């Protein structure tokens, strides 16, 4: 699975983009998104998704 950003709750702080080891998080027109083909939930890099740990708005969730 991959993570996703709940856009309505995102504060556009950018903290998630810089901790992603697979560079799956990008911003376009002040909207952050996670590329599900690149997101590996940090498996092989960390014990848990770093974007979730860094997000002050708690707007990053597991994609359905």
Primary descriptors:
alpha+beta, 4 strands, globular, two-stranded antiparallel ribbon, two-stranded antiparallel sheet, Alpha-Beta Plaits
Low-confidence stretches: none
The major sheet is characterized as: 2 strands, antiparallel
Range of helix content: 10-25%
Adjacency order of strands in the biggest sheet: 1-4
**What is the number of independent domains?**
1
Class derived from helix and strand content: alpha+beta
CATH topology: Alpha-Beta Plaits
**Beta strand count:** 4
The average pLDDT score comes to 97
- What's the CATH class label? Alpha Beta
CATH architecture designation: 2-Layer Sandwich
What do these coordinates show?
The radius of gyration is 10 Å and the shape is globular. The protein has a two-stranded antiparallel sheet. With 64 residues, the chain is an alpha+beta fold. It has two helices and four strands; from the N terminus they run βαββαβ. It has one domain (3-62): 2-Layer Sandwich (Alpha-Beta Plaits), CATH 3.30.70.20. 16% of the residues lie in helices and 22% in strands.
Quick rundown:
The protein is 16% helix and 22% strand. It is an alpha+beta fold.
Secondary-structure blueprint:
Blueprint (H helix, E strand, L loop, with lengths): L2 E3 L9 H5 L5 E4 L2 E4 L15 H5 L5 E3 L2
Antiparallel strand pairs: 1-4, 2-3
